[in-house]
Amino acid sequence: MPPTPTFPAFSVNPRRQDYDDSNSQQNLKPFNPRQSDSRSSDPQPNSGPSDSKPSNAQPSNPQRRQGGSDRDRHNRLHPSNFFAALSSLAENDRITGLFMMACALAGLILANLPETGPGLNALAAWIPLDLPGGLSLSLKDWIQDGLLTIFFLTMGLDLRQEAATGTLRDHRQVLLPTLAALGGVAVPILIYCLFNLGSPAGLRGWAVPTATDAAFSLAALQLLLPKAGPALQAFLMTLAIFDDLIGVLLIALGYSSLGQPSWLLVCLVGLVVWALLVRAASRSARLWRPLVFICLLGALAGGLLAWYGLFKAGIHPVLAGVAMGLLTPVARSKAAEAEATEAEESSASTAPNLTEPTEHRRTDTKPSGTEPTETHPPVTNQANTKPAGFEPTEIEPNRNPTLSPAERLDHFLTPLSALVVLPLFAFFSLSISLDQLGPGLLTDRVFWGATLGLALGKPLGIMTMLILAGHVGLRRPAGSTTGNMIGLCQLCGIGFTMSFLIANLAFAGSPHLESALLGVLAGSVLSVLIVAVGTIPGRLRSARHVSS
């Protein structure tokens, strides 16, 4: 007769052991049907001959396992998870840049097909809403003047955030990108004006080749120059921020006509309402939840009032988005700070101290007279070998569980801006017919001014300022080489969103509009091709080195 096995005297909760794996210290393994089958096929100590047959082991509670999988599927399809996936997708510069490029090329192709060209032109000229107050705009105008304000709002939020907590806070890091951005604006303007001397109509587009598209440039930098470190990416991002800021100033000063100055007071009132109610919404979260919704609706009304005030004053209304972003607070309220402190303290109190040596931890004492059970080493035993002062990041409490109003708004609007607004704007901006251009495009001054202003003027101006800055003692980004810096300067010739907008403002209703838009597209593509061809020798050397 086989001996009767002995078991520990302490009680085990079978319900928790079956399907609760939240306690990592017990090291409970999940159910595996194959392992269960192999174990059940061995003869058990207390089983008779009839029990030695292999049995098809099933989960202890199949209905609960099925319910758990249904809950997991429901959680995956939850709207919050869907929005989180959209947010991560919108923050991927490669995907958003390629998507915007695809939309721009799709608009250009569809506008020149005989089957879709007339319908697309009719759609762009369609007036969806016949509103009073001069707001009877076409669909293309609503996208350019209305929806694009969301993009400028995110731009203002990024500027506000960077100025408060980012790279723009350190004046030493800001000086070099600022000088580079100024050089990248001055030289393209000079090249464009040289091509259009004697053409007053063409000179209206002097600011077209001055912009750098941050999303496209960062995506191209990561694809074509993968060895560019974080310092180069931060330098390019800071340069693009100042480039956008200069573009905003150029639009306000060069392409706005102050027809009715009194409407600027209306815009000012709207901005004040926006600033006050956004701050009130961030501070009233703990007082009364519906009050937050009311404050946000009032802030939206103030933003719309500021937009309409600029529209009636004769200034391009998208600039209201930049002002609204700059007026959004980046500091968390006292209530949010208290909530963050409470969450941090609760996380710190419930988290185990993994840095404490194993021999000093509390262990469950076994009752006397029982045989010692097999103990598994803790999952985090490697953490005990770390030097003093090591803090594991796996259980580190969240230091910022509540975001500032600017971060929340930016997180909410970025998917809408990157995945909807900018692709629509690129699609309708390049929905132009090439029938009227023909071979005359090769001799068009506006086309060549925009093309060479971006592909030649931007890198030449930025490199010139970097060389001059080096002579006065300003250091280049850490880890940068001459080749990487040349490639980065060349990629700054990619200009889409801001250049398209300036072209539409400069040549509205003019035959030069198509030439300017195609010049922006040609200059951007040429900048990418120059960097791609320039990196071919290095890629070939790397391939030969790997093969050898």
TrEMBL record:
Record's catalysed reaction(s): Na(+)(in) + 2 H(+)(out) = Na(+)(out) + 2 H(+)(in)
Topology of this chain in the membrane: Multi-pass membrane protein
This protein's record includes keyword Phosphoprotein: no
Bias type Polar residues, positions: 22-35, 41-66, 366-385
Entries under InterPro entries matching the protein: Na/H_antiporter_dom_sf (IPR023171), NhaA (IPR004670)
Keywords, comma-separated and alphabetical: Antiport, Cell membrane, Ion transport, Membrane, Sodium, Sodium transport, Transmembrane, Transmembrane helix, Transport
Localization: Cell inner membrane; Cell membrane
Listed Gene3D superfamilies: Na+/H+ antiporter like domain
Pfam families named in the record: Na_H_antiport_1
Chief location category: membrane
Region (Disordered): 1-77, 337-403
Positions of transmembrane segments: 179-197, 203-225, 232-255, 261-278, 290-308, 412-434, 446-474, 486-509, 515-536
UniProt KW Chaperone keyword: no
Record function comment: Na(+)/H(+) antiporter that extrudes sodium in exchange for external protons.
Sequence similarity: Belongs to the NhaA Na(+)/H(+) (TC 2.A.33) antiporter family.
PANTHER family: NA(+)_H(+) ANTIPORTER NHAA, SODIUM ION/PROTON ANTIPORTER NHAA-RELATED
Protein name: Na(+)/H(+) antiporter NhaA
Species: Bifidobacterium kimbladii
